[in-house]
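We were asked to recover a plausible sequence for a given structure. The inputs and outputs are reproduced exactly as logged, with field labels preserved.

PROBLEM: sequence recovery
POSITIONS: 113
GIVEN STRUCTURE:
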């Protein structure tokens, strides 16, 4: 499980680094495809109505939220030790946390829940 924990920590570090480089939060203007950064910069307006869902997705995965999610997952990892299963599902929780990264080249099939 040590390799899996390190794999997860590496992915969290990557997520944190990308989120910190953004340096702003995003909000969507109404139900449009227009996204505005907290510093006032305006992202490209999406002319096609189909982009509205994409704008919503971008805002939903705002850097501030990503950083909170990274911290929450780190707390889960910090609470895990090989001899203490802090959850009825035990090590399976780590496998579930790794599942979104199944397309990463370092992901191992034996980690599938």
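RECOVERED SEQUENCE:
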């Amino acid at each position: 499980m040590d390799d899996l924990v390190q794999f997860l920590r590496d992915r969290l570090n990557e997520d944190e680094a990308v989120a910190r480089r953004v340096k702003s939060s995003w909000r969507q203007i109404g139900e449009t495809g227009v996204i505005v950064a907290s510093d006032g910069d305006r992202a490209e307006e999406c002319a096609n109505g189909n982009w509205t869902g994409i704008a919503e997705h971008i805002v939903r995965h705002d850097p501030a939220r990503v950083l909170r999610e990274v911290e929450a997952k780190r707390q889960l990892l910090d609470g895990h030790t090989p001899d203490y299963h802090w959850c009825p599902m035990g090590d399976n929780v780590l496998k579930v946390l790794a599942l979104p990264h199944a397309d990463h080249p370092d992901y191992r099939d034996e980690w599938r829940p």
